[in-house]
Write a structure and sequence with these properties.
Layout (H helix, E strand, L loop, with lengths): L1 H19 L5 E4 L4 H11 L5 E4 L16 H15 L4 E11 L20 H11 L7 E12 L2 E14 L15 E3 L11 H7 L1 H13 L4
Parallel strand pairs: 1-2, 1-3
Antiparallel strand pairs: 3-4, 4-5, 5-6
């Protein structure tokens, strides 16, 4: 009975997606970070006609990210942008780094770990200082995606990748904490690995592939 109910619920979700999302739809990525937009477009491909982010809509004020979890903030950002762009499909990403030795910090404050408006370099410097004498290096990246249209939340997807914090930066690729994070089973950081390899492993890549299954009617 539960399996039948789940199948019916999945069928309803697929019907809603078929009615709302199509290759003719444009996707608004609720971010001002071009690196996130590029990673999302690389994985979602031609499932949308075009990809725009909030740099294209300067009249939309940034959402107040006051949630306690990545999912809270992903919901907030998706619904905020969707209210300004009710005809478009909006995707918001909230993601960050959780370091075990720091009690899960920087967590939801990853982008502003060194203070409001902090650069990636400043955030990395603060993390390295906090970890300077710490032998335990285990950490993970987490990502939650929220898809919305108008005032309605359509779907939540999530992903995570385990790894460790390196004592110094490695490579100049990626963005954020990528040069300091080495995923499990690999000898190089996300700052060294190719974009394709990173997308295959990363927290965001996992969440996006979950979304792809739903968009393709296989979720």
């Amino acid at each position: 009975m539960r399996a039948l109910k789940r199948q019916r619920n999945q069928g309803l979700v697929h019907a809603i997606f078929a009615a709302i999302v199509s290759p003719m739809s444009r996707l608004i990525v609720a971010t001002h970070n071009p690196h996130k937009t590029a990673e999302i477009q690389a994985i979602l491909g031609n499932r949308f006609s075009s990809y725009l982010d909030l740099t294209c809509f300067p009249g939309i004020e940034p959402a107040v990210e006051d949630g306690e979890t990545f999912e809270d903030n992903a919901r907030i950002k998706a619904l905020h942008a969707a209210r300004f762009l009710p005809e478009d499909v909006v995707l918001a990403d909230d993601s960050g780094l959780e370091v075990d030795a720091l009690g899960g910090a920087p967590g939801v404050f990853s982008a502003r770990y060194a203070g409001p408006g902090a650069t990636d370099a400043a955030n990395r410097e603060k993390l390295l200082a906090a970890m300077e004498t710490e032998p335990r290096r285990s950490a993970r990246f987490r990502c939650v995606l929220a898809l919305a249209q108008g005032g309605e939340l359509l779907h939540i997807a999530s992903g995570s990748v385990e790894g460790e914090i390196l004592p110094t930066g490695q490579g100049e690729g990626g963005f954020g904490y990528d040069p300091l994070f080495r995923p499990q089973g690999h000898d190089a950081s996300f700052g060294v690995l190719s974009p394709g390899t990173k997308n295959a492993l990363s927290h965001r890549g996992q969440a996006l592939r979950e979304l792809v299954k739903l968009l393709d009617g296989k979720g």
